[in-house]
Design goal:
The protein is of the alpha/beta class and 389 residues long. The protein has helices spanning 6-9, 13-23, 26-33, 40-50, 88-91, 95-106, 120-123, 141-154, 172-176, 187-194, 197-206, 220-223, 246-255, 271-276, 298-308, 322-330, 340-349, 353-372; strands at residues 52-54, 69-71, 74-76, 80-82, 110-113, 131-135, 158-162, 260-265, 281-284, 313-315, 335-338, 385-387.
Length: 389
């Protein structure tokens, strides 16, 4: 195996996922990989993507493919970015730092969650030109204003309001694993950690002052002394946040002067009001199946939402490779974000993981564009689509 390069050892996302599982404690794996309920929505994401066929083309000759795309007035070299993931740093030591640095070097968007294990200030030295701050909405207006100011001062240019988490979901696999919030190393979890020395050593070094486990650093200044009786699928952020409404969105639009993205949209009927409220882009997502098990797959509703708005459309949930990205763009998406995939890559390969995933996705995009006879992503809209049922 030593003589094999990464492409040979890990040619696909499934390979990264399998290796990541071998390197993570069980409770961390279940946090990363699980969905809610019977996980039907997670399975639906994959099934609906696989239904979409694209007619290949022949006799187009050699082609040089252009993978660039436009978003928020910038030209991005690739049509995908790094979605925010809560407690990202639980999956791998310095996960947010690794991902932000890679995004900067590859000129990709990087999304930081309010409930990540590093704060906007932590990432400011590593942030590129396309930092996105994902807001789990604080109820208190003073905290809200301060959080937006911190994100802006750290260099985040895009604000993402998540609207599909009005309450904590129930993720049974996560509960069964023994994970608590905030994470505490109980004897049960310590037994799992002992079996994964690379993860354990890295986490201990990264969090020397926190008992060897990460916490939500963005929230530190707001929750000192707070006690929590939350479920294991909720977290300390629920002490501060609210379920946003339309007035909340109006307030954010008035207080954020950059692009504002609304994440978690699945119903085309909501689109006109989102436009009127000043949203700059709509993020179609079912939270990768982690919130509501009866939700449709984003790819199922994409065409209807595309028909309802000229706004940029971002899509996530279930994307596993370049072909899936092309499927999304053929149905009307302008950009794709991925969350779990980057963390599979990190857990599998450490600091080398993000660059390998980017290379893998880039090659997969180019190979499938060659089969389709297109040289740029705009042409994906004109592809002949097939129902493979």
């Amino acid at each position: 195996m030593r003589g094999m390069n990464l492409d040979q050892r890990f040619p696909g996302l499934d390979d990264l996922r399998a290796h990541a599982r071998r390197r993570l404690p069980r409770f961390v794996w279940e946090y990363l990989d699980s969905a809610t309920g019977r996980e039907a929505s997670q399975a639906r994401n994959r099934r609906c993507l696989d239904r979409i066929g694209l007619m290949p083309a022949i006799l187009n000759g050699p082609q040089d493919v252009d993978l660039s795309t436009e978003l928020f007035g910038s030209t991005l070299p690739l049509p995908f970015g790094i979605a925010p993931v809560g407690m990202s740093g639980l999956v791998w030591p310095d996960a947010e730092g690794h991902l932000a640095r890679h995004a900067k070097s590859a000129n990709l968007p990087y999304g930081l969650s309010t409930v990540a294990s590093q704060s906007p200030e932590d990432l400011a030295p590593h942030l590129g030109a396309h930092g996105w701050f994902q807001l789990y909405p604080p109820k208190d207006e003073t905290i809200r204003k301060d959080m937006l100011a911190r994100a802006r001062d750290a260099g985040f240019k895009v604000l993402v309001l998540t609207v599909d988490v009005p309450v904590a979901s129930r993720r049974e696999r996560q509960v069964r694993s023994g994970l608590t919030q905030p994470p505490r190393l109980t004897p049960r979890l310590l037994a799992q950690v002992a079996q994964r020395p690379t993860w354990a050593l890295g986490m201990a070094m990264q969090h020397k002052s926190d008992g060897g486990m990460p916490h939500m650093r963005t929230l530190d200044k707001y929750i000192e002394g707070a006690a929590s009786a939350l479920s294991s699928t909720a977290h300390i952020g629920y002490l501060l946040r609210t379920a946003p409404d339309w007035d909340y969105l109006d307030w954010l639009r008035d207080h954020w002067d950059g692009p504002l993205v609304v994440k978690g949209v699945l119903n085309a009927q909501d689109v006109p009001r989102l436009e009127a409220a000043g949203a700059d882009a709509i993020w179609i997502s079912n939270h990768a199946g982690r919130q509501f098990d009866a939700a449709p797959a984003p790819i199922e509703v994409l065409e209807e939402i595309r028909a309802a708005t000229p706004l940029p459309l971002i899509l996530d949930s279930g994307i596993e490779g370049g072909l899936d990205i092309l499927r999304a763009m053929a149905l009307g998406a302008d950009f794709v974000m991925m969350g779990r995939a980057w963390h599979y890559a990190l857990a599998a390969l450490g600091a080398r993981g993000p660059a390998h995933l980017t290379d893998m996705l880039t090659k997969d995009l180019a190979a499938n564009m060659g089969q389709l006879g297109i040289s740029d992503l705009k042409s994906a809209r004109d592809l002949k689509r097939l129902n493979l049922d």
